[in-house]
Amino acid sequence: MSDTLIQEYYLACQNGDLEALTRLITTNQIDVTNDSDPKTGMTGLHWAAMNNRLLVCDLLLKNGAVIDAKTLKQYSLSEMTPLHIATKYSYLYMVHYLLKQNADPIALTYTGANLLHLAVESSNALNVIHTILFVNEPYNVPVDQQDTFGTTALQMAIKQEDITSVKILLQYGANLTVRDTKERSALKYAASRHNKDINILLSRHLMNKNQNTPTIDEAPDLVAFYMASKYSRKNVMLAKRITFIVPTFVLFISAIFGRYNAIIGLIVFFMLAKISDLILYKILLPLYSFDKSPRKALTQSPIVSGLFFALLNCITVVWFAKLETVMVQSNMFVAIIFQLTLLLTYYMFMKLLISNPGNIPKESNFDIIREEVTTLIQQGKFNDYYFCLETWLRKPLRSKFSDISQCQVARYDHYCSWLNNDIGLLNHKIFIVFLFLLETSLLSFIYLMIGYFNQINSFSIIKTLSPFDFTFPKAPENHSLGALFLLLIFAVYESIYVMNVIVQQTYSISKGLTCFDIKTLYELEKNSTVLFSKPFIQNDYYNINYDELTLLSGKPIITESSTNIKSMVGKSVRSVGNEYSKLVSRITSRRLLESRHPIGGKRDKLMKFFGFNMWTVVRHCNEEIAVYDDCELPNEILEPTRYGTIRNMKDFWLTAKLDSNIFKRLLTSNKDSIALLNGLPVDYHHLWKLPIKDNSSLQTEGIDSGLRLV
Known about the structure:
By secondary structure, the chain is an all-alpha fold.
């Protein structure tokens, strides 16, 4: 073979020129069984794998190309097979195809690196998971296998400060104490890198594994062990309990000063709140929220639920200390309603604090995980949009990963900071009942408080608001008027906020949407460029077309319609581009018109303070749905469950036990993953597609339960 001919051949392999390759092979100008470069050892299959040309690889292998050919030792890619190169460059679909064609999964490079080393080197978490699932686990390749330098995959991930890969390797059982040829372990590398997030992650892993401080004779590792004792589970739980109690302490001290003067009590409250805020940020929050921003860590800490619990305690104390003896006789009916709803509110609050929002159990069977990953690969959807990197689960529709439970939550609605818990499939109905009870309790309390103040001299109330009067009221009925007045203001604010949440929740339920669905639509409208970053349009880790996808699956993909096929896998990129361009142009035009009348900053903050900013999201959501209706876009963006108000209400309030009494279905909450959707029981743990509005028959994948959606 001439140099010109071989260069033409290599160039065709790199560019995916199937026509030129077919001509060269069929005319016997190129022998694919002996096509290696004498200087580098690179073959046509190597070049195709390096450039992610799946169809070229298939053509070469069908004509006898050597699948495990290695490059020369002197080359930069020393002694690498096409599978090594595909793994190094993170071409997941190419890797999966080569493994399917019986490429050697345990071959080593010149440095003794295996596929897991190369996957970690790519810093692609999906690549690491895929290698573990399809190489390490089925072929019994040790996760701690060392290269010629003694480096393990975990040590390499720590050196690169790739915390996601570190989590994955620890989850699979990587050993922190294996030493390389320099007598350094993963713990020592972590300590020398001074990466706080990784050090805390390793320390917590050690504490959870050993339940106490480990003892190892490696002195540099003591840094990590010190952190392990600091960030132990025991200290984390103690920090959370202190965070929960802090608001009660602050309100108690403020109430003491508020007995003399309301303004002084309010000033003391803000001073103590500021001090508590500093303590939380500096000491408590880092113990259990090391991987979050300070603002997110605060909202997801028990501080807000502690504040809500402190409010309930204040209302209870005020009722028994001040209002009960005075108001029961004059307003007995309202007093009974208040006491009953307050008691039920306490019960519901405690129940929701520890409730399971619908956590999807983590799968421990690698065969099932491999099956799900294979399905996603065949559909061109193996990416972090459809696959959870934390739980190794295929993400069902309407689910979301929870930072609280570290699980995927089925039919995720939102995170409630009042409860320090997520609201999902199993506790959403209880949450709505809790809101109604809380609102009734607050309104009745406000009514009783106003009645109490009506019986007191107005001059005494005004006197408590003077910042210069510190005399204690002589009349017993005037004691603590300042604190009572502040509590009344807070109760009024809380009732407005809760009522707004109730209306918003009722609206979203009637539309068959969750708050998570509505916010997803709002984000699409808010930043229209995000449409082009969705994984079914663009992905950083692969570029696959319809023919390559068909090759991987072994048969054409069957979806809703041929239009959706073209939109999803890119057979007609121009078609989907036109649809997205039409959608984005409409959104952009509307946003330009709205920008002429911007909302003021103070008004926006005031609406957010009372919770009314959510209605802006709802309004945009309605406009977004109207825009989507005329665009043929992939169903995976979001197909709103517009099955009708009555139908959606029934789906929410009734359980899926169709043979039970309707009152029992109404009064009980969901106990498992089966719930109604469009009037039919569906498994929310395996919800891959929403039921079609005009057709109540659901397409299934033929599993035993018959409820698994495509």
